[in-house]
């Protein structure tokens, strides 16, 4: 049996925590209440549903705090 080479995560063509990012909009309560195209609880469930696989995959959690006027 021949061992396979360890892939370089930075150069690999497949998605890995080292060569990918997951961007989620930080919805504020006012924004959530203004969205009328879907049920509020369904929207929250969808956001959580996107975040969980990223966490499970080991993507780093960095925070960028911004403020708008």
Q: How is this fold's topology laid out?
A:
Elements: H1 29-34, H2 40-56
Question: Short summary of the structure?
Answer:
The chain is mostly helical and 69 residues long. Helices cover 33% and strands 0% of the residues.
Task: Please explain how this structure is put together.
The protein has 69 residues and is an all-alpha fold. The chain has a domain at 23-59. It is built from two helices and no strands. The protein is elongated and about 55 Å long. The relative contact order is 0.13.
Q: Which bin fits the share of residues in helices?
A: 25-40%
Which sequence of SSEs, written as H and E, runs from N to C?
A: HH
Strand content: under 5%
Q: Which of globular, elongated, flat, extended, rod-shaped describes the shape?
A: elongated
The multimeric state of the shown protein is single chain
* Gap from first CA to last CA: 62 Å
Tell me the number of strands.
0
Low-confidence blocks of residues = none
Mean pLDDT rating: 76
SS-based class: mainly alpha
Gyration radius, in Å: 18 Å
Number of helix segments? 2
Main sheet specs: none
């Amino acid at each position: 049996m021949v061992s396979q080479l360890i892939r370089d995560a930075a150069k690999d063509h497949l998605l890995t925590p080292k060569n990918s990012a997951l961007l989620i909009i930080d919805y504020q309560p006012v924004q959530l209440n203004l969205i009328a195209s879907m049920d509020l609880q369904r929207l929250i469930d969808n956001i959580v549903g996107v975040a969980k696989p990223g966490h499970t995959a080991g993507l780093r959690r960095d925070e960028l705090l911004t403020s708008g006027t």
